[in-house]
Structure formats: structure tokens, C-alpha cells
Automatic annotation (TrEMBL):
The keyword Hydrolase applies. Gene3D superfamilies: 6.10.280.40, P-loop containing nucleotide triphosphate hydrolases. This is AAA+ ATPase domain-containing protein. One of its GO terms (biological process) is response to stress. Its cofactor is Mg(2+). The lineage of its organism: Eukaryota, Viridiplantae, Streptophyta, Embryophyta, Tracheophyta. It comes from Brassica carinata.
């Protein structure tokens, strides 16, 4: 018993030990502060804190701030903003931001956004993930936002390597979809195409009858076992009114227009996805069809021929081109396009209609002179419209048209002369010309 008490240190020796330890610690801290630079000290501290906290924690959190550095937008943040509203099933708070900045088309699908402090659960290859959007108030400046993405620590590498790329790709897909397919709603106020479009009366009657028969043709299409669709090709030089014609058809039929930018569609699967999202009683407009890639064209044609019939009714497709001669023959194959419409340069009848639309007059003394000039110079309705809209005064506007046509005539004459000179230069001297002509004839 006595030996046990002998082994227990006395209070004074414990106190001595404590004060010595404290003194050594303080000495070491002072030496450390004096000898080791501040930057290195902070680095060591952060590493130690990181090490111990990660040792005890099982979760890992990625912080995705709105900006990368001071001003550069963080693309990962933007991708998450677009991607997360597509994960509606993972929304835990039952709230979503909805909005639109599309003044031209108020009935278009609104864009979706994630409200602040909303938790969204996601899953990637069996890994559970949790997203959270946070907001930091900033005095005098716009608030800063950042996402927290949390996963189990052991999946950190996998998320870094694959998940972020997946989020970015998914967001790009959504964005491409938004940009490739613009939707225009028909204008209820302006449903009369008389007030906007000038075309030859015969063409107008034929087209109106065709559209009328189509809209009443549900039973007919069913009885012959064909999809209730009509395909038009509008072709002709730029400015002859192809787009204006599409708008007029949409107004007449009360259909929405899906304007597909086929040049920016990257692959067949994406094209199908876009095409199947169009609604009934709509026009699918594909402008400059000669500029799309062959692969997409064949995807489009397959869709028009087959899938179209199983995904909706009463649809019109309109292709436009300035160069019909450059179209893929597959598109022109019989049975693919129902109606081919050539949009031509201004004719006297179209001109009279334009005059009644813009200066809003019924005939004018200058009209005869203008119509005669049409025999010598080709001019598009777009060019005429531009001149007519230059003044509200009919005299001034029509004189402007004459001047424009005269200038065009002179330019055309100059070009013709220049071409003739080039040809005669090519033919060379009289003797050479003789040789050239005789060899050409002997070849024939
Ligand atoms: N037939 C027309 N009737 C009334 N306005 C027309 C007509 N054709 C052209 N215009 C006027 O010219 C403008 C341009 O015409 P539009 O875009 O319809 O021609 P386009 O043939 O589609 O040209 P592009 O091939 O360059 O797309 C129209 O906004 C309209 O103001």
C-alpha cells in the first residue's frame, strides 16, 4: 500500500510538469512564428484541418460559384442552372422558378430555374447526389450565387471525371434544342393575309383551295391510309416572299410555326427529338434546305415518310430554298413534296397589290412606266417594298421606285458590256477567233 502511494506523483511535481510543458509549447510557438513564414504556417494549418475533418466526415462537397475569378462566368454553374430543372423528380421543396424573356412569343414554353435554398436529389450511375443553390447577399452589388454538390467521399473522383461532363453535355442538349426550334404563334389580330402578302391571284386561289382541302381532309387521309400532312416547297430568289408566304399560311390556318434551324442540328437523334416535340395543327418550317447536311436530310426524309404518321395529325411542312437546282434529288422524289411553288420577281399584278398595301393607293399615273421597266429589269417584291416604304407620299415613293429601277438598268447594262468585253478578250485576235471558232465547229 505504502509503495503505491510512493508511485503517485505529488501535486507540486504535476504542477511543475504542467508549467514546463506550457513553457516549451510557448517557446516552440514563438520559434515557429519567428522562423516559419506566415504563408507556410497557414498552409500547414489548412492541411491539418483538412486532414482531420475529412478523416471524420463521410461526405464531400463541391462548391460551384457563379463566377470563375472576378468576372468570368463559370460555365459549370451555367450548365447546372440549365440541367437541374430537367431533374424535376429530384426536387424536394416542390418549388420551381418559371419565366420568359421572349416578348415576341408570349405563349412559348417558359424557361425553368432553381429557387435559392432548394434541394435537388440526383443519381448518376447509382451514386446519390444532392444539389443545393445558395445565395450570398452583397452590399451595393448583385447577390452572388453558388451551388453545393454533395456526394459520398469515395465517389469524389468519379464525379469529377464523369458527372460534370455529363451535366455539361445534358445542358448543351437542352440549349441546342431551345435554339434550334423557335416557335412563332400565329397573330390573331392579323389573320387576313390580304393585308400582308402580294402574290399572283391565280397562285393565291390555287394555294387557298389546296389548304382548304387539306384542313377538311381528315377522313380522306384516313381512308387512303396516309398521314394527315402536306409538304410544300417554296423556291425562288431571295426577297420574293417565301418567308412572308409561310407567315400568311400560318395566319390563314391558325397554326403555329416551328422554325427549325437544321444547319445547327448536330445529329440524327437530336433531330428526331426535336421533330417529335412539334404539336398538331402546326407548320414545321425548314428554310434553306439546300444547306443542311446529307445525313440530316435523310433523317428528316425518313421522319417525314414514316414516323410523322405515328406522332400527330394535321401538320404542314414547308421547305424553302433559293436554289432548287441544288436540292438533293431524294427530296424531289415523287410523293415527298406535294406542292412546288415558284416565287418570282415582281409582276405588274404583284406590283399593283404592293402599291395598294404600302402607299395604300389604287393605281397611279407612274405605275405604267414602272410596269414597262419590269420588262427590262428583274426586281423582287422585297426591293419594291423597301422603296415604297421610303415615303408616305405616293408620288415621292413611286418616283423612288422608278429611280431605283433606272439605276438597276444602267448597272445591268454595264455588267453586260463588261461580260461581252471579257468574252471578246478570251477570243483574242481575229485570226485566233477564226481558229477558235473552226476548232469549236470541227469538234461539234
Ligand atoms: N410577295 C410579297 N408581298 C408582300 N411583301 C413582300 C413580298 N415579298 C417580299 N416582301 C417584303 O420583303 C421582305 C422580305 O421578304 P421575304 O423574307 O418573305 O423573302 P424571302 O423570299 O423569304 O427571302 P429569303 O430567301 O432571303 O429568306 C418581307 O418582310 C416583306 O416586307
Amino acid at each position: 500500500m505504502a509503495s503505491f502511494y510512493n508511485q503517485v506523483p505529488s501535486v507540486s511535481s504535476v504542477f511543475f510538469l504542467y508549467t514546463s510543458f506550457s513553457a516549451i509549447t510557448m517557446l516552440l510557438r514563438t520559434i515557429l512564428n519567428e522562423v516559419v513564414p506566415k504563408g507556410i504556417r497557414e498552409y500547414i494549418t489548412v492541411k491539418l484541418v483538412d486532414y482531420f475533418s475529412s478523416y471524420f466526415q463521410s461526405d464531400f462537397t463541391f462548391v460551384i460559384e457563379q463566377h470563375w475569378g472576378e468576372y468570368v462566368e463559370n460555365q459549370t454553374f451555367l450548365a447546372a442552372q440549365v440541367y437541374l430543372p430537367t431533374r424535376l423528380a429530384g426536387l424536394t421543396t416542390g418549388k420551381l422558378l418559371v419565366g420568359s424573356n421572349n416578348l415576341k412569343n408570349p405563349t412559348a414554353q417558359p424557361k425553368l430555374g432553381i429557387p435559392v435554398d432548394t434541394k435537388i436529389m440526383d443519381e448518376f450511375e447509382g451514386i446519390h447526389l444532392e444539389w443545393n443553390l445558395h445565395n450570398v447577399k452583397s452590399k451595393g452589388r448583385r447577390d452572388k450565387q453558388y451551388f453545393h454538390l454533395t456526394c459520398k467521399k469515395e465517389f469524389r473522383e468519379k464525379i469529377l471525371a464523369d458527372y460534370f461532363a455529363y451535366v455539361t453535355e445534358s445542358a448543351e442538349k437542352v440549349m441546342r434544342h431551345r435554339e434550334n426550334l423557335q416557335i412563332f404563334t400565329y397573330n390573331k389580330e392579323d389573320s387576313d393575309w390580304e393585308s400582308t402578302l402580294a402574290i399572283e391571284p391565280d397562285l393565291k386561289t390555287t394555294l387557298m383551295n389546296d389548304l382548304d382541302a387539306f384542313s377538311k381532309g381528315k377522313d380522306f387521309f384516313k381512308s387512303v391510309g396516309r398521314a394527315w400532312k402536306r409538304v410544300y416547297l417554296l423556291y425562288g430568289p431571295p426577297g420574293t416572299g417565301k418567308s412572308s408566304m409561310v407567315a400568311a399560311i400560318a395566319n390563314q390556318m391558325k397554326y403555329n410555326i416551328y422554325d427549325l434551324q437544321i444547319q445547327s442540328v448536330k445529329e440524327d437523334g437530336e433531330l428526331r427529338e426535336i421533330l417529335t416535340s412539334t404539336t398538331n395543327r402546326s407548320i414545321l418550317l425548314i428554310e434553306e434546305i439546300d444547306c443542311g447536311s446529307d445525313i440530316l436530310l435523310s433523317g428528316l426524309l425518313n421522319f417525314v415518310d414514316g414516323l410523322w404518321s405515328s406522332c400527330g395529325e394535321e401538320k404542314i411542312i414547308i421547305f424553302t430554298t433559293n436554289h432548287k437546282e441544288m436540292l438533293d434529288p431524294a427530296l424531289l422524289r415523287p410523293g415527298r413534296i406535294d406542292v412546288h411553288i415558284l416565287m418570282v420577281y415582281c409582276t405588274p399584278l404583284v406590283f399593283n397589290k404592293l402599291v395598294s398595301l404600302y402607299p395604300k393607293i389604287d393605281g397611279h399615273i407612274l405605275c405604267d412606266a414602272i410596269e414597262k421597266l419590269f420588262l427590262e429589269v428583274s426586281i423582287t417584291p422585297a426591293e419594291i417594298t423597301q422603296q415604297l416604304m421610303a415615303s408616305k407620299d405616293a408620288d415621292i415613293a413611286l418616283k423612288g421606285v422608278i429611280e431605283y429601277l433606272e439605276t438597276k438598268k444602267i448597272k445591268r447594262k454595264k455588267i453586260q458590256n463588261w461580260r461581252l468585253m471579257e468574252i471578246s478578250k478570251m477570243l483574242g485576235s481575229k485570226k485566233q477567233k477564226h481558229n477558235w471558232l473552226s476548232s469549236a465547229f470541227s469538234y461539234l
